[in-house]
Amino acid sequence: MTRFHTLACGLLLALSAAPCLAATPSATEQRLRDSIQADQPHAIALLERLVNQNSGSLNIAGVTAVGEMVRAELEPLGFDVQWIDMRATGRAGHLVATHTGKGRGKRLLLIGHLDTVFEPDSTFQRFVRNGDNATGPGIGDDKGGVVIIVSALRAMHATGTLRDADIKVVLTGDEESAGTPLDAARANLVAAGKWADVALEYEGLIVDGGQDFATVARRGVTDWEMTTTGMTGHSSGVFGDGLGYGANYELVRILDTFRRELPEPNVTFNVGLMVGGTPATLDAGGARGSASGKTNIIAERAVARGDLRTLTPEQEARARTRMQAIVAQHLPKTGASLVFEDSYPPMAPTDGNRALLAMLNQVNADLGLPAMGEWDPAKRGAADSSFVAADVDVLAGLGAAGSGSHAEGESVDLTSIPRQALRSAVLIDRLSRTPR
């Protein structure tokens, strides 16, 4: 099978994860494999350094320091590395690294993030290795993914395949807790998506039942806050014409109607916090609340906060419309308002995204690696790749395999790093030589 045939197979099988017949890896691709294997001590040492530097989203100095570590890896490979200061949004900043090739092949955007959920006051702070497994804060989400990006690009540089490639790496510094306003916090990533032809995202690899899975779709997240009001007074008048039902009954009516009427495939609706009484308030930031009341007082005010997750923009718009209609059907003597706060847009499954998975599975077949399935988007969280999905084809979940993300004991299977780096290096090489 010729190289042209190999490239064509991956593109033609746009709607199938099945590869064409396997071809023998080229001499260059074999050199990529050898380079990645030889470079593993460097990759693991880099992972340890990144993990041991705390970079909780709110730790501006720590996130900046991790960015400088990655800069030191990419600049020697010929990347122009820029630090985008984002302190105006309350966060450290983003690393944007650009490699300029010949402009003939696909322009590639590689996405990851520098921050973690573990702030400096966490007791979980250090990299610990036990054979082929290692634990540490953010080791899989997303410092393992960052190391895979670096490892793949170092191998391409060593074999000469990076020279002609047009690549932009965007590593955000606030993926786990985005700065505000969100439009400003994601402006550089959105611009990179408009520049690119293909985006590859390096959040954690899903492994289930011994099989690797890639991600062609992610649900978006929209936060919401609902406030209900009622007439307060002695509880003996509840349900009556004078005082009505009170704020708490109105809140419960709305939430229970959401529960009964909103569900459809790939839609979830969560209530994360609710308070009600006379009075009831939320603290700044909306993560804590307080309420007062007595059993014989009708509640004057209630507040609830949660999120809505959907797979497509159309599904989100439909859910929002239905939610507002439900809110508007007030119980007697009550009122209610519902406010949405945009967060992560949906990354819908598209033919283009599935074509990338087909091309990756052709790489897997040619390299003798297992084929990768398509992971259920209802089982994944949101990620930065969603911000570019409206403009570019995306393949996600190309990072390291592990477990326990966002919890103490978070771990990574170190053997997944060379496997993922090899898949990426060959896929990037082939895409960079595919005409735009």
TrEMBL record:
The keyword Amino-acid biosynthesis does not apply. It comes from Thermomonas carbonis. It comes from the Bacteria. Its cofactor is Zn(2+). PROSITE patterns: ARGE_DAPE_CPG2_1. The keyword Ribonucleoprotein does not apply. Gene3D superfamilies: 3.30.70.360, Zn peptidases. InterPro entries: ArgE/DapE_CS (IPR001261), Bact_exopeptidase_dim_dom (IPR036264), Peptidase_M20 (IPR002933), Peptidase_M20_dimer (IPR011650), Peptidase_M20A (IPR050072). Transmembrane segments: none annotated. GO terms for molecular function: hydrolase activity; metal ion binding. Residues 216-333 form the Peptidase M20 dimerisation domain. Residues 1-22 form the signal peptide. PANTHER family: ACETYLORNITHINE DEACETYLASE, ARGE_DAPE-RELATED DEACYLASE. This is M20/M25/M40 family metallo-hydrolase.
